[in-house]
Each structure stands twice: as structure tokens, then as C-alpha cells.
From TrEMBL:
A single cellular component GO annotation: cytoplasm
Protein name: Dephospho-CoA kinase
Binding of ATP, residues: 11-16
Subcellular location: Cytoplasm
Major location category of this protein: cytoplasm
Swiss-Prot/TrEMBL keywords: ATP-binding, Coenzyme A biosynthesis, Cytoplasm, Kinase, Nucleotide-binding, Transferase
Entry EC number(s): 2.7.1.24
């Protein structure tokens, strides 16, 4: 099945863009959401996370203490590498399992991942989309959405490839600023992917 990877820096709007593809009937695998599901469902991973970041990584009811983990990893490269090494292989496996049961009649699938390029998982996709927006707009979107500080968002931006680095690796682009509408851009890409997946 033809596989499209989609990524973009924090707050670029990749999830919002994926929702438009979903309206067109395209199944989307959300790697960030899946990562969170696995982190509360996989006993081996839970143990690994507790030994790396402490028992307070989980609340008594089993929910993930995102703030606790984020506070450690986004301020320390080594700790972030540790978390990525624990979580990313499990997400790759979850994607393979998802793909094996997806409706075989769909023309293509989308894999949404914040770290598509950083993790190397773009190499498993047939083509890629990069969603971009100016840094200031991304910052403001995330501050509003997550009720966090600019410094917290910048700490995550610093741990991701810059848009310049990502642009070198991406095949297609969606500009999600205040001047460009995303719907027309998605429709145009959809037409291209339909012809690619048929050919
Ligand atoms: C540290 C955690 C618990 C913080 O949870 P929180 O709810 O605050 O953030 P959430 O997961 O919704 O991510 C929001 C955004 O933060 C950025 N981000 C998340 N993880 C990472 C990472 N490992 N490196 C760089 N940026 C990241 C992305 O832009 C992402 O879209 C969580 O992000 C996590 O478990 N990350 C590790 C898994 C991962 O790498 N996920 C991303 C790709 S699979
Ligand atoms: N074109 C737009 N117009 C208005 N609001 C938007 C637009 N695109 C995204 N947003 C808003 O900006 C915020 C960030 O968008 P979204 O969650 O899609 O980004 P993301 O790239 O998936 O972020 P993250 O990397 O944090 O997961 C959301 O609250 C979303 O509703």
C-alpha cells in the first residue's frame, strides 16, 4: 500500500491537516497518540519508563504524568534519547500492526509523526509531506492549545530538526500560515497521491 508520511514542527498544524485527509476517507496513523497509548498499555515499556524517570512518571490510576516526563526530557538530551529509545521501536511495531489490518481498498495511508525525519521512519514511506508555519505562529498556537509557556515550547523546538533541515528531506509541502488555506492544498495533494498509488 502506498504510504505517505506527514510531519511538521510543534504547532505547525500537522494533526489539523491530517483531519482534512481523514474527511477524504484516508486512514491516518497518529504516531504521537499511539506512543501515549503504548506508554500506558505496554507493561515492559511502563517498567522501563519507571526505572528511567521514576515511579512518579505514572499517576496512581495508571495515567501518564506527561508534565513530569516532559520536564526531564526536554531539558536534557541524554534523558530524551533514553525516552526515544524506549518508545520509538514500540511505535514502529504498532504502525506495522495497524497497516496489516487497514482496509486494503483505500488508495493510500498517512503516517503522522512529529519526528518522521529525526527518527528515520520517513525511509519506510513512499513520499512525505512537511507542514510549515512561521515560528511565532507555532509558538502562539501551542501556548494557547496546551496552556504552556513560550520557553517550554521552545525547549521542544530545539530538540527537533529545523524547517530548513526538514525541507531538504520532504517531497511535498503544506503551508499552514494565516495567508494560505489548507483545504485546497490537501485536495491538490490528494489528487497527486491518487494518481501515484494507481500508477
Ligand atoms: C514527553 C511526553 C510524555 C510529553 O507529553 P505531552 O502531552 O506534553 O506532548 P505530546 O506527546 O502531545 O507531544 C506534543 C509535541 O511535542 C513534541 N515532541 C513530543 N515528543 C518529542 C520528542 N521525543 N522529541 C522532540 N519533540 C517531541 C512534538 O512536536 C509533539 O507533537 C510525550 O511527548 C512523549 O512521550 N514523547 C516521547 C514519544 C515521542 O517521541 N513522541 C513523538 C513521536 S512518536
Ligand atoms: N490553519 C489554522 N487556523 C487556525 N488554527 C489552527 C490552524 N492550524 C492549526 N491550528 C491550531 O493550532 C494548534 C496546533 O495545531 P495541531 O495540533 O494540528 O499542530 P501539530 O503540528 O499537530 O502540533 P504538535 O506537534 O504539538 O502535535 C491547534 O490548537 C489547532 O487547532
Amino acid at each position: 500500500m502506498y504510504k505517505v508520511g506527514i510531519t511538521g514542527g510543534i504547532g505547525s498544524g500537522k494533526t489539523t491537516v491530517c483531519k482534512v485527509f481523514e474527511v477524504l476517507g484516508i486512514p491516518v496513523f497518529y504516531a504521537d497518540t499511539e506512543a501515549k497509548n503504548i506508554m500506558i498499555g505496554d507493561a515492559v515499556l511502563i517498567d522501563g519508563i519507571k526505572s528511567a524517570f521514576g515511579n512518579e512518571s505514572y499517576f496512581a490510576d495508571g495515567k501518564l504524568n506527561n508534565k513530569h516526563i516532559a520536564g526531564i526530557v526536554f531539558n536534557n538530551e541524554t534523558e530524551l534519547a533514553k525516552l526515544n529509545a524506549l518508545v520509538h521501536p514500540a511505535v514502529f511495531r504498532a504502525f506495522d500492526a495497524w497497516e496489516a489490518v487497514v482496509n486494503p481498498n483505500v488508495p493510500y495511508t498517512l503516517k503522522e509523526a512529529a519526528l518522521l525525519f529525526e527518527s528515520g521512519s520517513y525511509k519506510m514511506c513512499d513520499t512525505t509531506i512537511l507542514v510549515t508555519a512561521p515560528t511565532e505562529l507555532r509558538l502562539n498556537r501551542v501556548i494557547e492549545r496546551d496552556n504552556v509557556t513560550a520557553e517550554q515550547v521552545k525547549a521542544r523546538m530545539d530538540k527537533q530538526f529545523s524547517d530548513v533541515e526538514k525541507e531538504k528531506l520532504a517531497d511535498h509541502f503544506v503551508i499552514n500560515d494565516e495567508q494560505h488555506g489548507i483545504i485546497a492544498q490537501v485536495l491538490a495533494l490528494h489528487q497527486q497521491f491518487l494518481s501515484m498509488s494507481n500508477g
